Amino acid sequence: MKISDFIGAREEKIKGLLKDIKKRDKDINAFLTLLENPEIPEGPYSGVPIAIKDNITTEGIRTTCGSKILENFIPPYNATVIEKLRKAGFVVIGKTNMDEFAMGSTTENSAFFPTKNPRDTERVPGGSSGGSAAAVAAGMVPVALGSDTGGSIRQPAALTGVFGFKPTYGVVSRYGLVAYASSLDQIGPLATTVEDIATVMDVISGKDEKDSTTSDVKLNFRGFKDIEISGRNAVIVKEMMEYEGLDSEVAKSFEEFVKTLEKMGVSVRRVSLPTIKYSIATYYIVAPAEVSSNLARFDGIRYGLRVSGENLKELYLKTRNAGFGEEVKRRILLGTFTLSAAYYDAYFEKAQKVRRKISEEMYEVLEDNDYMISPTSPIVAPKIGEKTDPLSLYLMDFYTIPANLAGIPAINIPFGEVRGLPVGMQIMGGRFSDASVLALAWKVEKAMG
Ligand code: GLN
């Protein structure tokens, strides 16, 4: 399904699509909310349906973040990306399932239900943007928005066999994205073609006065196909390939990917980035610390669920205990611990320094080289219920987290199958080289037919 199939679509076509989704989503559970009568705004993409991850606020449309604490929350305003999509004519048709507050890698942390992988319904679609990935992979919508803090767009894209793009930090406004870890979060698109990824990026990117971390650098998403690829170079990070959790058949697919790039005139060489192996440890200090601060606002007074108590403190405790799931509580506790006076220097401050070091190593190598490549996920989609212990889930993020720590752009390219399941490859680039990352991804897409 592509954007071009829908340009100019009117009510009848959208109604037909929704009817079809309603029926088919019984087996997939990609949607938390499906609209009955979505507005079809005018604009260059009028009539093009889009699904939105449920941590992006939509005026008048329930936005749950996959959490009981926001089960009945109806935001009074639109996120900037939603305003931009509406002005361009896109039709928001529904909100997609996700791991609670985007914490997770399988969508099984949703407080409501797990989403199934359309390529094998006994398996997870990845996460945390699993609903958005499943909706696109199942051909329910041409495009969807997700959010990516440590891989949550790229990893589910890889596990379901679609494209998923995390832009440079600051390229897309986070206004209206319910914050997980603000220094890492970015909104981005999932789609079945690179062209559709570029189209959505062209619409949603840009400086926003409501998000002071947005940049005014103008990126050429419209002209991405004209960017010359031949003669460019890419690096493989030695420490990434030495990762013991890497499935040997995924590693073989990666070798094929390298050959594909070389055939296109991209030279590939290996480099060593000694600090990158600390990425997961660093991320799981930095992200929970930001969680402990960002999620303090869910107190039973200002938003969503309220469980009353004898006094204010009891109300807070009861509300947060009933409203948050296990993983969210774990991260709030971890973050509160590492930020506490006695441990701040040993954990949080140390992690900030390591983050800086990892980023600098990456920037340096990306000054002399155009791209960095890796598999997107070390493994293919696990079965529902197969992976439950938090540590083994955290380890799945090994390839995606570095791009968030450094704020650089990264895309997942669906690249064939391993044991009948989709496998994805990742291309990263220097900060603000987003269009050039898309250009190479597009060449690979074409080369694969
Ligand atoms: N799996 C990672 C986590 O649980 C990434 C999530 C994300 O990118 N939102 O934090």
Explain how this protein is built:
The protein is 37% helix and 14% strand. The chain is of the alpha/beta class and 449 residues long. It has an 11-stranded mixed β-sheet, sandwiched between helices. The mean pLDDT is 97. Bound molecules: glutamine (GLN). Glutamine is lined by residues 102-105, 128, 148-152, 180, 287, 397.
Low-confidence stretches: none
Q: Structural class of the helix and strand makeup?
A: alpha/beta
Task: Please tell me the CATH architecture of the domain at 3-225 by its name.
Answer: Alpha-Beta Complex
Q: What is the CATH topology assignment of the domain at 3-225?
A: Amidase signature (AS) enzymes
Head-to-tail CA distance between termini:
16 Å
The fourth-level CATH homologous superfamily of the domain at 3-225 is Amidase signature (AS) domain
How confident overall, as mean pLDDT?
97
Round the Cα radius of gyration to an integer and report it. 21 Å
